[in-house]
Amino acid sequence: MVEDLFMDDMRLRGKEVLRNVAFESYEQLSTKIGHSALQVNYKSVGSDDIQPILAEYLVGCDGAHSRVRKAIPGVEAVGVSQPAIWGVLDGELITDFPDIWSKTLVYSEEHGSILIVPRERNMTRLYIELKSCQTPTALADLARGDDLGQAFVMEQARKIMAPFRIDWSCIEWFGRYQVGQRLASHFSDESASVFLAGDASHTHSPKSAQGMNTAMHDSWNLAWKLNLAARGFARPELMASYEEERRKVALDLVNFDYEHANQIANGDAVALAKNFLFNVRFISGIGAEYGPSILTQPRVIHEESAFACAEAARPGSILPPAKVTRYIDANPVDIQLDIPMLGQFRIYLFAWDVFQSGTFLESFSNSISSRTSFVNALSAAATASYARQPRPTAPEDVYTRPERYVKASELFTFALITTMPKSEFEISDLPLLLQESRWTLYLDNVPEQDTRGVRCTEKWLGRLAPGEVAIVTVRPDGYVGSVGRWDAGLDESGANAARWLDEYYGGFLKLPDEPST
Amino acid sequence: MVEDLFMDDMRLRGKEVLRNVAFESYEQLSTKIGHSALQVNYKSVGSDDIQPILAEYLVGCDGAHSRVRKAIPGVEAVGVSQPAIWGVLDGELITDFPDIWSKTLVYSEEHGSILIVPRERNMTRLYIELKSCQTPTALADLARGDDLGQAFVMEQARKIMAPFRIDWSCIEWFGRYQVGQRLASHFSDESASVFLAGDASHTHSPKSAQGMNTAMHDSWNLAWKLNLAARGFARPELMASYEEERRKVALDLVNFDYEHANQIANGDAVALAKNFLFNVRFISGIGAEYGPSILTQPRVIHEESAFACAEAARPGSILPPAKVTRYIDANPVDIQLDIPMLGQFRIYLFAWDVFQSGTFLESFSNSISSRTSFVNALSAAATASYARQPRPTAPEDVYTRPERYVKASELFTFALITTMPKSEFEISDLPLLLQESRWTLYLDNVPEQDTRGVRCTEKWLGRLAPGEVAIVTVRPDGYVGSVGRWDAGLDESGANAARWLDEYYGGFLKLPDEPST
Coil, helix or strand for A121? Predict the structure, then answer.
């Protein structure tokens, strides 16, 4: 179902997935970093002919037994297997056990544990521990593929559930696995043209639903970097950050999972619930955070500020949800979701008062638009790049109007958040850069709609001092990149802020050498 | 777009709309009420042949100039036309006027008013008053269809908007109308087999978006009654209630609209905003309420209760939104939306404590299931009726599981709302009727998720006294039908409550005479 969503979207944009082919091998035709060319060899199912395809990049999303991983020189899966073997059954249950509609753990000291997960269409997923198989003999049987079939697993489930009765009116899927926590020794090759994502780069137990979720985060982290690389904007540091960031999350996951899987098998319900609650921020995806790096800068206070400590929009974390009013149409919006993700960076400016911060905004806007600005040079190059190779469009764009968000720049969406009342200023009072960003002008005036009852300014910044202007930069994947603060009363602050952006983006972006194809 | 949603849904359920045919006339083949047969005559577009179709019912949803209305003996549109003539333009604007993304009123004393309504796809709708046409001569011109074409209307818009400039990069739709507030003298024929809905039964200005919305409410009010009539469950009183209820709403609308349209033309922005705010409950649809009738009983307190005055779930009004936790899967839900609308009535029981109210629940459940219960007899007949003629199904049903809500009865969904903690009782502690209704067992324990911070019990009932049990019945269209309260400590309360339901439903439902076809 999830795959269909992606494929339908791709199809709307004119892209199709090639099916029934298996990766065989790849060769590096050129190793100049950033301009690699790969020959990828594949076989069609039912044929022994090897066919080549030329590509700039190769991403192995081919699961725990990834052939792409095995093809990268020097890369291997490192980790341990757990002795526990589990069966998985998806089906419709006939049972007098009442609690199949919540996530439930049933523990039998003799026979092992069952984790019950309700599914769509009246179905229930059962993870069934095959405790009797945790002997060297049984493990050897398993290795030979003997005996531990569906009927055996169903019988184990019945034993664990007794005295409640359990049967199935239909079974849609049966699986069996031995939990292993493993990480690929590298998530890419040396030339940064071959990458691993999802189970190909990390494996763990399926019980906290982190497989698909983490894989999508991997891909999302990689996708925008690949886009910038393909357009010639990526420094090698940007491509290296993929492994750096996702390995950290994979390690966090494997460590959590090891503990969590063991606690499921131990059957201590209270400890398990406590462990789950403690880790729920991580499990929900919000808690997957990146360490300090060129992409996610440790907080630097450029002008002294006493109020920077309670920041919730922390570099390396996802933007916290907040509610604001869109100036142009007076609609309340979830600001962290309002700007569509088009591969561009977001630059949020915070000012209490548009007129008091007028000098800052004007000088910031002028500096950003000046010939010496790196951000400006990047924007100009991006205009050329997206003119040559536009974003794939879809009929739905006529409703979502992506062009509203890339008018000032194809690479940066600028946004202004102010607590000033709408009636006290007009869009025409703003500098040109922000006039061109009129769809991302927000009024911070609906704290009552926030889950914690606070304004976006307070939620993201902790506090903004009177006369202070702050900038929060956000990466194309929604992670906060950097946070800066300036005294709007100083003449040079606007120019300083623009220079601060130049320095930040200069750490991992570059101007394309030549028009990319 | 809205039509497509309905048609897609119909198509999923195997129903198609016959297009390119025009209603000509109908004849009543039999006039016995409740068993009418109609011959409806229609013409295909481009043909003069009149073709007949046989039908039990005919609903004229054919707009302000409804031919069905004209065909019903003795029915005519009654009301007045306003002198104002308006043009409507949907298109993409080129303008320096900044406020086209909110609903905006522009008033020129000399040239008249423009109402600006933002639309999808960058479009803006303009309602343009053609003030210069409010003379007898101009009205006569209009009657002849002269002069007031698109170019004229665009020119009027430019005059009203000056000194702002306005032009169109494209125009998708142009229309022109004279506002008239009219009501059909009857909404159905005497035999209750021909009905009018939407503009066919009431016309008014389009400016508060009440045309389509009220039409859908009309149809929705009629649809469930027609379903019951077609299955033989409807007393004549039920079919008569359509006109009674919807005429009241149409009158409310026409009165509001008259005032509102005049205020738009008057150009007093403050008075208009005040009028809009005062009427916003009505405009949103929530405020469309029905008066006391056999369907929407004035509040009757069967056992004395001191706390019945603050009831928010009032007969004749829509259910107020409230949050509860579904017992079976511990999911928080919007209770007013949780039970899918399958043409059935809903019966909500409120009890603080499942065990203290045990006698009531048991005796209520037994009475409802007894051979003397009218509700039980209706349910039995409904089982037969839905077996002969099932609800049309759609593939999506596999996700929504409608069968969960009609297990105890095809005609009634029973629900229990309690503040008791989940850990203190099991579904198996409940009487069978409520065990069969396990998907509609709710815990009233999430007031913090409510917009007003109160529990469903308080929101719907004002207050429920200790030891009291209350019942709120809801019609298939989501309107509250009746509210009753009983002292759970009295032995006869449960049976009394069941009898109270029998009396209520007996007012407008009956057992089918014979198996319907």
Answer: coil
